[in-house]
Specification:
By secondary structure, the protein is α+β, with helices and mostly antiparallel strands. The chain contains three helices and seven strands; from the N terminus they run ββαββααβββ.
Length: 166
């Protein structure tokens, strides 16, 4: 099991996706992130306990920006966000296909690093299999010392929508 800043992937089972998780997932993770700030501007991965956010954790991922700020590395990707890809741990964000949920959820990492604030995005993705999904995601800066960003905690969820021909 992969370790990153004292954190490891925790779940073997995927919590069933629910329309009810839509925006609330983003707000719940943001609220938890704020609660973790003990000193400085940002919380530490060391203080993050996946069990405390068990309903959100299956949709989370972590990016390492310590030595890879220009192209973060994926250190943790739970089943709800990984789109079934088992080989993404240790890969750069730029390696992610743009048609994936994780690819879209990581696409604004540079904005978070530049602004030094949490950023949330939503949108629509046309998938290669012809389906369309609506998604919402969030990226949150994390720090070992409360000031220097060492990684990003992210989460995303989606729901499929019916594609209608014009």
């Amino acid at each position: 099991m992969a370790q990153f800043c004292g954190m490891s992937a925790a779940s073997d089972t995927l919590v069933e996706r629910s329309v009810n998780l839509d925006r609330r997932l983003v707000f719940r993770l943001l609220g938890h992130w704020r609660d973790l700030i003990l000193h400085g501007e940002f919380p530490s991965f060391a203080n993050l306990d996946p069990a405390e956010i068990a309903d959100v954790w299956p949709f989370c991922f972590a990016l390492d920006t310590t030595e890879f700020a220009d192209d973060p590395i994926i250190r943790v990707a739970e089943p709800g966000i990984a789109d079934g890809a088992d080989d993404i741990i240790g890969r750069h964000v730029s390696d992610l296909p743009g048609s994936t949920l994780l690819g879209h959820a990581c696409s604004y990492a540079q904005e978070v690093l530049r602004k030094r604030v949490p950023v949330s995005r939503g949108g629509s993705i046309a998938r290669p299999n012809g389906t369309r999904i609506l998604y919402r995601s969030i990226l949150l800066p994390m720090s070992d010392d409360g000031h220097a960003i060492c990684g990003l905690l992210g989460a995303a969820n989606f729901r499929e929508v019916e594609v209608t021909e014009p």
